[in-house]
Design a protein that fits this description.
Helix content: 40-55%
Number of helices: 13
Strand order of the largest sheet: 4-5-7-6
Radius of gyration: 25 Å
Largest sheet: 4 strands, antiparallel
Strand content: 5-15%
Order of helices and strands: HHEHHEEHHHHEHEHHEEHH
Shape: elongated
Number of strands: 7
Structural class: alpha+beta
């Protein structure tokens, strides 16, 4: 969320609200951590001042923030190294005085993106408008669903070549890697191991530890449903969404049953699943769902 007084920064530049919630670290390195936190807080103020006032000189920043110019220069050096700000020569209008023009510092594109923007609100407003313009009710829901499917179709096109190039038993891992490259921090694991099963693995769990649209999906679950449909198409099997960050869970978790002809990597090659294992797949999915959603927030 945005913060009009001190906009929290991504890319390792925490905002004031985050800093207020830091607990005291009771160990020998506590003072070093507190010092590092203070440095980050001040660096955040420097970057925010440039965002609010535009390209600024060291002297401008020092005056606005009540810091010495030496301190400002030190923080600017870090921000330049992190590609948050960039230096350039100040434009001089009229007759140029003696000496070199003062350097001014402005935010890079990455620096602007580092500040939380109102993208969530804009997206939510757009989806509400789509639903209302379609007539509301079931028609509105259908319109939002159509938009969600069109949105994830572009993702599917990017992922398809990667998934199809992988061995059948490794396609879930290939999808997780593609998702991670898009910022979803995805991993896979044996579904049976999660459920505490000792029998042959019945499938995998695809876990997404980050969701860029979680706040929007709280109001519009069609975004999650469309994503699950894409996973199903890419992997060539039905999938079951067990948990979502938008629903209040810590991780978006999707159960992917083991294809009878595509054993998991942990299964011995050319080993066909037993009849009992195949028959128990549905029961295993229920067990996994219970284990994965225990303690989740009510809808």
């Amino acid at each position: 969320m945005t913060n009009s007084t001190g906009g929290p920064l991504r890319h390792g530049l925490p905002g004031p609200d985050e800093l207020r919630n830091n607990e005291v670290v009771k160990n020998v390195g506590a003072s070093q951590e507190e010092q590092a936190t203070g440095e980050r807080s001040t660096r955040n103020r420097v970057a925010r001042s440039i965002l609010d006032h535009g390209a600024s000189t060291t002297a401008d920043l020092a005056e606005r923030l009540g810091l010495t110019q030496a301190a400002v220069r030190r923080h600017l050096d870090h921000l330049v190294a992190e590609n948050i700000v960039e230096p350039r020569e100040q434009r001089v209008y009229g007759a140029r005085t003696r000496g070199r023009p003062a350097k001014v510092f402005s935010l890079t594109d990455s620096g602007r993106d580092a500040f939380d923007q109102a993208y969530d609100q804009i997206a939510a407003d757009a989806l509400r408008w789509i639903a209302k313009s379609a007539g509301g009710g079931e028609k509105g829901d259908a319109a939002v669903t159509a938009f969600a499917r069109a949105r994830v179709a572009a993702q599917a096109d990017r992922y398809r070549a990667t998934v199809e190039a992988a061995e059948p038993a490794l396609r879930t891992q290939a999808l997780a890697k593609a998702l991670s490259e898009d910022g979803y921090a995805a991993t896979t694991r044996s579904a049976s191991a999660v459920a505490g099963q000792t029998r042959e693995p019945a499938g995998e769990q695809l876990c997404q530890h980050h969701c860029p649209v979680a706040h929007i999906a709280e109001e519009f679950p069609q975004l999650c449903e469309a994503e699950a449909e894409v996973f199903s198409h890419l992997l060539g099997t039905h999938v079951q969404r067990l948990a979502t960050i938008a629903h209040g869970d810590g991780v978006c978790t999707t159960y992917i049953p083991q294809h009878p002809h595509h054993p998991q990597p942990s299964t011995a090659p050319n080993t066909a699943p037993s009849t009992a294992s195949t028959a128990n797949t549905a029961n295993t999915a229920v067990d996994i769902a219970s284990a994965s959603t225990a303690g989740r927030n009510p809808a």
